[in-house]
Amino acid sequence: MIQAMFSGLEALFEGIRFLFAHGGPNVVMIAVACVMCWLAIGKGVEPLLLLPIAFGCLLVNLPLSEVMAADGVLKTLYDFGIGNELFPLLIFVGIGSMTDFTPLLANPRLLLFGAAGQLGIFITLLLALALGFSKEEAVSVAAIGACDGPTVIYVSNMFAGLNKIPTAMVGALAVAAYSYMALVPVIQPPIMRLLTTRKEREVKMPSPKGKISKTALIAFPIVVTVITGVIAPKGLPLMGMIMLGNFMKVTGVVPRLASAAENEIANICTLFLGLAIGGTMAGPQFLTRETLMVFGLGLVAITIDTVGGILLGKIWYLLSGGKVNPLVGAAGISAYPMAARLVQNEGQRWNKHNFLLMHAMAANTGGQIGSVMAAAIMLSILKGLGII
Amino acid sequence: MLVVGMGGTLATLFLITLCIRALSVFFPVRSEDHKEEKK
Questions:
Q1: ipTM > 0.85, yes or no
Q2: Chain B interface, mutation test: which of A139, A224, A228, A380, most B Cβ atoms within 10 Å?
Q3: Does the beta carbon of B25 lie under 8 angstroms from any beta carbon of chain A?
Q4: Contact A113, A309 (CB under 8 A)
Q5: CB contact, 8 Å: B6 with chain A?
Q6: Cα A237 to chain center, whole Å?
Q7: Would you give the distance in Å from CA B29 to the centre of its chain?
Q8: Does residue A223 contact residue B35 with C-beta atoms inside 8 Å?
Q9: Beta carbons within 10 angstroms of residue A88's beta carbon
Q10: How far apart are CA A35 and CA A40, in angstroms?
């Protein structure tokens, strides 16, 4: 009887014993989860994603946790929606439904900022290869330069599914991507000021005059989907889902579907995706030198994206005889609409009468298309090389 | 990879830019669009 009581008590303390014996990395990750909670709750940093990621991280790192075991709840969520890239794609339908491409259609030239804003992806890819990452790992790390969480998860998970990168790396990449997206207001302004002169920052750009017909708005998502499908079919699911969401919105005939994509579907998928990504952050697998390098390279990627956009802006400023404000180039990344608002604020800081928002929104939506297109092209090149 | 990737992205987005221009030409703003906007 007493023996049975001691055995029962021993079972209750097994978790604590494990924590003291082998739980160092788990304790560190529990602290990381607490920091993510603090960032989400106290600082408002991407709370929609950081909060579920933090909780998933906490759940998986508690001693003897079985949430990521064969039938564990987070493993089930992972297999159901991340292992097959479903959740990021469903979130993209919602993103498409939330995005207004009208400023871009009114000023289509600014789409080119969306290409320049992807420079970080390709430079980081080369850097990652030079640092010894495998080709698949390098592509996944470089995708952080897309400044777009679902794209990073989609690309990296494709390789994780093929056992080309460790599953824990998907978690590190997702957290790095979302963290840097949230840090765009901290990362971009110093680069904007460093690379532009006061005269360039003060350039006033008149509001775009062209009106857009409803037919053009409806045709746009179809045209982009067809072009992507023809040129970079490997990225068609990504672009197709964004454009489906936008198509439902602009046609105006399925408001319930558009609203569901934007609200219920996006919200449910965001919760499940965050929890399952948090579940990949088990201490022993997560705390590696590669994770630190992922975070370092992610910062490099987003910095170079901003530099690429501003440099194109400077070239455009010169070619147009000083009519284009180079700051608009910084909005050519995918962090929507944060990057556009940042450009507007920075422009008004130097010239109170400057109103760059519509131009920046055009560049920003161009950045959204550009980031997905860059990922699609990268995947298609890899397929061409026989790597995937 | 850098040249093909960046060049490919730039070329594709340029193609989309041309298509947007063509859309504006083929589908100009009609009076119905203005009416819908006012509603």
A1: no
A2: A224
A3: no
A4: yes
A5: yes
A6: 16
A7: 14
A8: no
A9: 25
A10: 9
Which of B1, B4, B9 has the CB atom closest to A373's CB atom?
B9
What pLDDT, in 10s, does the model give residues A47-92?
Answer: 888 899 999 999 999 888 889 888 899 999 988 988 888 998 999 9
CB atoms within 10 A of CB A222: 11
Give residue A253's Cα distance to chain centre: 30
What interhelical angle do A167-182 and A184-195 show, nearest 10? 60
Please check whether residue A290 is in contact with residue A128, taking contact to mean a CB–CB distance below 8 angstroms: no
Q: What is the DSSP letter of A232?
A: -
Chain A residues touching B33 at Cβ < 8 A: 211, 213-214
Contact partners, residue A256, CB within 8 Å, separation at least 6: none
Tell me whether B7 touches chain A (CB under 8 Å): no
Q: Which residues of B touch A101 (CB under 8 A)?
A: none
- Chain A closest CA to B38's CA: distance in Å? 14
pLDDT at A163: 84
In Å, what is the CA distance from A94 to each residue of A52, A249, A258, A260, A325?
Answer: 18, 10, 8, 8, 31
